[in-house]
């Protein structure tokens, strides 16, 4: 299932929780791990100068420098490295999102693991016009599932026993569903299918009356069974639920209740979130709040 | 030492030589060797006799030493009115001196001259507009750079840049395969959002052949996607060549005229091969200057024009907006104070001042556009033109030079600077990094994509 | 002496000056190269012509270009100097009488009062230009002895002319000196920086063609000098 993992890291605190999860997976599933560090952003037109992500200094990248950076990474992950049987450290120069995507395209990993954005992302070094964050742009275009680990709580992780699949019935949700099923079958765990019906409870709301809400939820649940259950052969332990509320809050609550080890969601490409606010859409709120890693699928 | 191992008169002609030079961090060895290479004075004088004709000689001779060019030069102004930055002085004390001495100059002189040619002039040609005699010091500096390049006195990055063009026919190590692959990949990435989006490579007889800047391919292919999206929505029949896609020319900054010719020939060959109606180049100033304005002369085209009509991206965009091929949703027009950077290379040097302003009319809410002062053909260089942006050796000078643009932007009060030129874009990005004045900067493509009124049939289906 | 200067010397100086200027201008245009200058002069004669005319015309008008407007003091000095320097030698009554006698024709003659003012203006502006050279660092750094020499031989005929005009000292002595200095000036024109008398037009025409043909001219953009 996870033969090749790509772990994209800034080799700073921001990636620590993700690191723990990445090495854990590698340990559990015997995966080969590609540690990718985008060491600098090209600067100054065509010059050879690069702004180092960690030190924020302008450096000239040569073999010596790369070797030094690799050594730094090894030291940084000294405790975790023994967990993986085979790994490789790679450093690249470029805008992080683009180089991560390029790497995915080139090496086709089964999973990409990433932490949260680093603080330095707001600096002009990274700014490319008025686009969004690295995270957002990677999720949007990644061909492989992206596992995001934001909170420390999300990183204390054994094996996967409970998966929450949160759907919004979009096309990309179907892809995420297929992946969730495949994963559940493969590692023989429980699958919880969940939908949160988006309602905002103000007296002016179109749907305010609880009867109508529950009526709708029953309809959704029926639709659910028809849509998904037929495709769930071989998965014995599952549950299906529809709750009402603010979707991301409900998803996080539900995951907590089910002791989920993993939330699987789709990035709705039609609603990628506002580009000015870094974390706007549902999925990003879930990533920020969840107590377990979140796996995003787009394609 | 007549020639160094890294610093010498021989242009870079192979990937190995390129890598060897690249591995010399910051050009340390390169610059050290430069201090002891010999000047081939005979060759220098012979070249001057063959190529320095009445125009430049007359300029040097009749220059009245009146100093009226001084205030036209932003580098003079920003360097606290340092008299050594007066354009006439810069050229008289370098090229003028070489000619007066009939080429008999030494290593030390050439190193000083190199510094003047690349760190005290961005070849913005603004002084030509302020000299009563019409003397264009920018052109002479360009000529001087050619002489310096021939003698091996050229900044490290530019020796590499020219080498890239010689080896890869692109300013970076991007091969033709890399280009096509990246182009197809990035278009794929946007397919879902723009159904029917295509990556048309090598289509014969298309209306438009699009050419790019290798940096877009290497570092921000989003730009390629954005170009594809805009052509797609405008309903254009367009293509990119699999060979001859690189429009830029660092060799022009380096003064490597032979490499300039090699580079631009690939683009012209693509034109001959694909026979498009027109060529459109990306939002780059020097690329346009190299391929459209100067290129025809390098390859010896008597009419001074490329094989097919070639226009800058802003011309295409202005026309697409004017004719309604692209429609802007008026509600989404820019409602922040916006200003516009006029690129020397296609505004002063190719008269495109009205195209960009036509675009502004469509995309900025009336009342939110503030002109810089001075502007249009009188605008100052961004501070990083002519290769200045990329040369590490002259970084402090370049950073100081950015102050002109910074103050120009500050006095407009704009929050967003539209910079349809790679060099200007870079310089403005760098000035924000250096001086943090709280501005955004952007090419036109991403800004326009966000405010497009996309026809029903081109929108993604629910 | 006077005879020699107004006779053989006059003809010689005039011939050297006129033929010299002609040669300079011919060599200038013959030396233009479409490929080296990267301007397709011959392919677009109309655009080139328009550009050249625009470029010359705008710069001949005081304050006609942004360059002039940006430096009003220099503009006043420049035109103050050149108005007299161009008009007085050709249109002064005395010069025209001399011409009539020598060549059998004369030009329109300036009102003597105007001519006086122009001459004074030339001399005063010339001196102020010298002062400017000394005072401003940006001009001082460019200035060589050659520049002072040129200014000297340009101003000398005017100063000596004024002395003769007001009959200070020995009139015929100063007149002779004036004629001598004038002839030196004529001879110097083709061989020195003073060749800008014609090469100004050539150089301005060239840059005008450059902008008119290559740098936007055939795009239909007129450069706003």
Summarize the structure in words.
Chain A has eight helices and twelve strands. By secondary structure, chain A is an alpha/beta fold. Chain A folds into two domains: 4-153, Rossmann fold, CATH 3.40.50.620; 159-297, HUPs (Rossmann fold). In chain A, strands 1, 2, 3, 4, 5, 6, 7, 8, 9, 10, 11 and 12 form a twelve-stranded mixed sheet that branches. In chain A, helix 8 (282-289) links the parallel strand 11 (262-266) and strand 12 (294-297). In chain A, helix 3 (96-107) runs parallel beside helix 4. Chain A starts with a strand and ends with a strand. Chain B is mainly alpha-helical. Chain B folds into three domains: 39-154, no CATH class; 165-311, no CATH class; 330-450, 3-Layer(aba) Sandwich (Rossmann fold). In chain B, the strands form two sheets. Chain B has a four-stranded parallel sheet. Chain B has a three-stranded parallel sheet with strand order 5-6-7. In chain B, helix 20 links the parallel strand 6 (416-418) and strand 7 (440-442). The longest helix of chain B has 18 residues, at 257-274. The mean pLDDT of chain B is 95. The mean pLDDT of chain C is 94. Chain C is mainly α and 225 residues long. At the B-C interface, helix 4, helix 6 and helix 15 of B face helix 2, helix 3, helix 5, helix 9 and helix 12 of C.
Total beta-strand segments of chain A: 12
Give the structural class of chain C.
mainly alpha
Largest sheet of chain C: none
- Name the beta content range of chain A: 15-25%
Q: What's the overall geometry of chain C?
A: globular
Q: Determine the most extensive contact between two protein chains.
A: B-C, 54 and 61 residues
CATH topology of the largest domain in chain A: Rossmann fold
Low-confidence stretches of chain A: 272-280
Please write the string of helix (H) and strand (E) elements of chain A: EHEEEHEHEHEEHEHEHEHE
Task: Please give the oligomerization state of what you see.
Answer: heterotrimer
Q: Percent of residues of chain A in helical segments?
A: 25-40%
Q: How much is the radius of gyration of chain A in Å?
A: 20 Å
Q: Biggest sheet of chain A, open or closed, and with what strands and sense?
A: 12 strands, mixed
Please indicate the count of domains of chain A: 2
Strand content bin of chain C: under 5%
CATH class term of the largest domain in chain A: Alpha Beta
Number of strands of chain C: 0
Q: Treating each run of at least 4 consecutive H or I residues as one helix, how many helices of chain C? A: 12
What's the CATH H-level homologous superfamily of the largest domain in chain A?
HUPs
- Bin the helical content of chain C: over 70%
